[in-house]
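Review session, final week

We close the course with one last complete record, chosen because it touches almost every idea we covered. It is MBL fold metallo-hydrolase, a protein from Neoroseomonas marina with 530 residues. Go through it on your own first, then we will talk.
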Amino acid sequence: MPVTVRACGAARTVTGLSLLFETPRTRFLVDCGMFQGPKTLKALNWEPFPYRPRDIAAVLLTHAHIDHSGLLPKLVKEGFRGPIHTSGPTVDLCAVMLPDSGHVQEMEVKHLNLRNRRRGRGEVEPIYTANDAVASLRAFRSVPMDRWLEFDELPGVRARWWNAGHMLGSASIELEFQEEETVRVLVSGDLGPDCSVFQHDPQGPEALDHVFLESTYGDEDKPCVDHAERRARLEGLVREAMHPDGALLIPAFAVERTQEICWDLVTLMQSGRIPKAPIVVDSPLAIRATEVFLEHAASLENGRSVRRALRSPLLQFTESGEQSRRIAEMEGFHIVIAGSGMCDAGRIRHHLKRWLWAPEATVLMTGFQAEGTLGRLLLDGKEEVRIQGETIRVGARIRQIRDYSGHADAPELAAWLKARAPVGGSVFLVHGEPPAMEALAARLTADGVARPGQVLQPALDDTFILPKGSPARPRDAARRRPDPAAAGRPDWHNKRAALLLAIEDALEKAPDTAAREALMARLRTTMETH
Ligand SMILES: [Zn+2]
């Protein structure tokens, strides 16, 4: 039996990365990510795994982001008994991020069950709870970087972690399979940009048989801005947002992005480039992640300055729900940083509900906004949005700063792959939306980094044989799950939201009550005859 791989997630989407590798002697995963974004994609989190968790010998984890690690508690809950090998900082970050994710699952299900009860529907269980997540932490084992490692449960496999420059502790994982022939594989994980101010540039080996390459920004060419330029841009945006009765809301990922923004804001205020104003970090997760950052600051670029800024009294961290609610009563200009970065969950939604209608407010997006998320809808200039069942007219200024990316852009991805040459077999593009993957595939071929036909774009549950030095060969896969990427996006939930808004709009614009009633009668007739 040859070495095979199955794309169990992040296949033509940006979330849920998980690759199942099988050899005649063992079976393991690289990453076990949660699906995020549109509801049809999130539904995959409830689907059974396409393998039996107890048959998996180990997990090798690239980094702590939930779209790479988020289903590990479910894996453990459903019978996985092996170790999870990953870098030291990733172990520490997962120890705060996974229980938080469990808490989010519990909250989401609580709200859903409340609604379901009102509609007379049955209750659902969370994918996993905070307790399940805590239980899964026992499986984590910290590994050193840059060194070949062998594991008892993975006979015939060696693995080596390389810095991926994407976030604290992030890595690409090199695999060497010693079967009849020796096959060398590299999984990029998420790759950071060359201009990251926290992380050192990504590294990796040369001469491989197959490479799995992330493609989040495969269709973007973002000139690398240096740190001074980024701060200047942030300075301009904060100045523009400073309304005496307003607020600046910054939806941000709690880990790394929040700390980077805090560092820049505090530095700008301390040097007098922007007036001092309260900066509220409204996220228990960000508080804990900040502690992990302080602990590992030595491994960061600019570590000392970061440590000083994160301890500044200008920063207020709010832990409890009560403290969080009191932010709404704050007077005078203030800045609120809260998750989630794509506005599809978390405390930022309360702040958006409070401020989104107000012209005195500014919302500043700082990260990638996946299709179908509230963040993307706002950036796309939607005049009205729905938050927790309520329609809100957008009055706030919507701005974006793109300089905080944790991801390499297309030229950087191509350069990274070029530095891995020669690649004798296939290049698999994963972790990207189809347009980004198409663009990256075209660029790699046009630039001569990949041969025509060498680049593959696996769909969910596609399985391949990985031979030495020649292209991967597709193979039939048992237990295929429904592929949400094939269902088209935006998904029907987004379309429903748009339809409801259109109906409300039409009713509001109708000249009088009679016209409104006539319209509603027509809608009812259509539904009943459908
Ligand atoms: Zn990531």
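Two points worth writing down before the exam:
The radius of gyration is 24 Å.
Residues 416 and 521 are 60 Å apart (CA to CA).
Good luck, everyone.
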